[in-house]
Design goal:
Elements (H helix, E strand, L loop, with lengths): L6 H14 L8 H15 L4 H10 L3 H9 L10 H17 L7 E6 L5 H14 L1 H7 E7 L2 H9 L1 E3 L8 H7 E4 L2 E4 L1 H4 L2 E5 L11 E6 L8 H14 E9 L11 E5 L4 E4 L3 E2 H4 L11 E2 L1 H14 L5 E5 L4 E4 L1 H7 L14 H6 L1 H11 L3 E10 L2 E13 L5 E10 L1 H23 L1
Parallel strand pairs: 1-2, 1-7, 2-6, 7-8
Antiparallel strand pairs: 3-5, 4-5, 8-10, 9-10, 11-12, 13-14, 13-17, 15-16, 16-17
Helix pairs in contact: 1-3, 6-7
Length: about 425
């Protein structure tokens, strides 16, 4: 039996995937097994079978296991020369590529406890100034570890954790609270943190700078290739990818190096679809195209520019994205992305908890008719179309919601009914 394959371990992984919603099958077995064994030694458990039984008897063990598996080691300005190059060369290019009022979108993928996301924030504020940063920059920070995300949102770090921050920047952006350094709350709130699995979930879109450092090294080569394709789709044509010093590209066709020393790449102009098994070619001839990027752009534009308010939630009910019309109608802010929809005004309107339960139960398209939304300025009547989003295995991963304002038709019906009654009275009088 090979060192990196154990049937009992595979059974354990299968249990976690099916019963806990945690898919670890994409990770390299040798490093994954070492982390499981570390936890098993703490419990004095000598086999994967016995550990599986322990998990089944102790549901709280799942959280402790994840803390052991996901080693969220990060730091501010880690590999300082790379960040210096990013600040001096790449960020100015990104700004130069954008129109003065155009949004700059940044994605910190695998953000751990948030240090790299906040490092990006500091560099962008230093370059743009606080006012321009607040107006123009959107930073998304994602990770598969929910406990790490909780700590990242707090933006509170020990003295040991902030040693990488230059002293002048530390005093400028953080205030000391007892023995902790806390980021300025106004700036902290500008970053949208959310749960995201790079191997499964759809990527962000229209990203100008994608930072994913020291994550790919833990994935199988094939999984790395798949993730890199997702990154390719996420980036704008002039976007940049920033990897860790120990990482290199498994496919050099879809990204062009800007600085190999600093592991910074730009999006290539072509994508070999056959290599990544994304589209089955019609012929045996290798076709080098970039149709998926085009398709993604078309879908994205159609979604954002739709005449109808639209939004998407994940299977648990967290807000993923909302188009311009939905943001205007429901006063959705960037900070609302990643929020449990029940906690928003919108959640009350659509009765989110009941809707999510119904979607998980029925997994079919739903329509909610003539939903009344009462505000200070009056009553709006909405028809809501809910389309479930299922993966290839039939698992519910989210839903798309479309809102159609039928208020004028309701008023018209009332007016017609009023006229009908008036005519009836006239007829009776005659």
């Amino acid at each position: 039996m090979s060192e990196d394959y154990n049937p009992d371990f595979e059974t354990l992984l299968s249990y976690l995937k099916q019963n806990c919603g945690c898919d670890l099958t994409f990770y390299k077995r040798d490093s994954l097994m070492r982390r499981f064994q570390r936890r098993m030694r703490d419990l004095k458990i000598d086999s994967y079978t016995n550990y599986l039984q322990y998990l089944q008897r102790h549901p709280n063990e799942y959280t402790t296991l994840l803390d052991t598996i996901f080693i969220n080691f990060s730091g501010f300005f880690r590999d300082r020369d790379c960040w210096t190059y990013l600040a001096s060369t790449i960020i100015p290019q990104i700004i130069a590529n954008k129109q003065p009022q155009e949004k700059i979108r940044v994605w910190s993928a695998g953000c751990a406890y948030g240090q790299e996301a906040y490092t990006l924030l500091i560099l962008l504020v230093e370059t743009l100034g606080i006012e321009q940063y607040l107006e123009r920059v959107q930073i998304f920070a994602t990770d598969v570890d929910d406990s790490a995300l909780t700590l990242a949102r707090r933006a509170s770090y020990s003295e040991e954790e902030v040693v990488g921050i230059p002293i002048e920047l530390l005093s400028k952006y953080f205030h000391k609270n007892e023995q902790r350094y806390v980021l300025d709350p106004k700036l902290r709130s500008t970053i949208v943190f959310g749960h995201h699995n790079l191997t499964i979930n759809a990527p962000m879109s229209r990203i100008d700078l994608l930072v994913c450092r020291n994550v790919l090294i833990y994935l199988h080569v094939k999984t790395q290739a798949s993730v890199l394709v997702r990154f390719h789709f996420a980036l704008t044509n002039k976007g940049f990818l920033f990897l860790g010093n120990a990482e290199s590209l498994t496919n050099k066709e879809i990204f062009t190096p800007v600085s190999l020393k600093h592991r910074i790449y730009t999006k290539g102009q072509s994508l070999t679809l056959e290599d990544h098994f994304l589209i089955r070619p019609q012929t045996r001839t290798k076709t080098v195209l970039d149709p998926l990027s085009t398709q993604t752009l078309v879908w994205q534009t159609a979604f954002e520019k739709s005449a109808f308010p639209q939004l998407a939630i994940d299977a648990k009910g967290y807000l993923i994205v909302a188009n311009d019309q939905a943001c205007k109608l429901f006063s959705i802010q960037n900070s609302d992305l990643g929020t449990f929809i029940q906690n928003l005004e919108l959640g009350r309107i659509i009765k989110a908890l009941a809707l999510i339960r119904q979607l998980n139960r029925e997994r079919r398209a739903l329509k909610k008719q003539n939903i009344e939304w009462v505000t200070e300025i009056g009553t709006t009547h909405l028809d809501i179309y809910i389309q479930p989003i299922l993966d290839t295995s039939g698992t519910l991963i989210g839903a798309n919601l479309t809102f159609i304002d039928i208020t004028k038709y309701i008023h018209l019906d009332l007016e017609l009914e009023h006229l009908r009654l008036k005519l009836a009275k006239i007829s009776n009088g005659l």
